[in-house]
Amino acid sequence: MVRRSERLLRRVLGEDVQLETRLEPDPWPVLCDPGQIEQVLMNLAVNARDAMPRGGTLTLATRNLPGHAGSGSSDRVCLRVADTGTG
């Protein structure tokens, strides 16, 4: 989903905000609503752009998080969104 959204996100961010991606090389499959994930990414990108009027960087990162045996936690995938803006 992140890869598919990159082109659109770059257009929304404009020339002054750089989009950096740090994606898991072999991501696990995730059960999700692709439209909702795309909308969340778009909203976060617009908020980040507005928080960086003089430019900056929006970083999207994914990582596989294995569950721990005996703890009851299951495997998960983390999507981290960070920017260099104020707030």
Using the CA coordinates, give the radius of gyration.
15 Å
What would you call the shape?
elongated
Helix content: 25-40%
For the termini, the CA-CA separation is: 26 Å
Q: Quickly count the helices.
A: 2
Low-confidence stretches: none
- Reading side by side through the largest sheet, how are the strands ordered? 1-2-3
- Class from helix and strand fractions: alpha+beta
Classify the beta-strand content into a percent band: 25-35%
Average pLDDT over all residues: 92
The beta-strand count equals: 3
Main pleated sheet = 3 strands, mixed
Order of helices and strands: HEHEE
Write structural notes for this entry.
Helices cover 34% and strands 28% of the residues. A 3-stranded mixed β-sheet has the order 1-2-3, covered by helices on one side. The mean pLDDT is 92. With 87 residues, it is α+β, with helices and mostly antiparallel strands. Helix 1 packs parallel to helix 2.
Short summary of the structure?
The chain has 87 residues and is of the alpha+beta class. The chain has helices at residues 2-13, 34-51, and strands spanning 17-22, 56-65, 76-83. The protein is elongated.
Can you lay out the helices and strands and say which pair or pack?
Layout: H1 2-13, E1 17-22, H2 34-51, E2 56-65, E3 76-83
Parallel strand pairs: 1-2
Antiparallel strand pairs: 2-3
Helix pairs in contact: 1-2
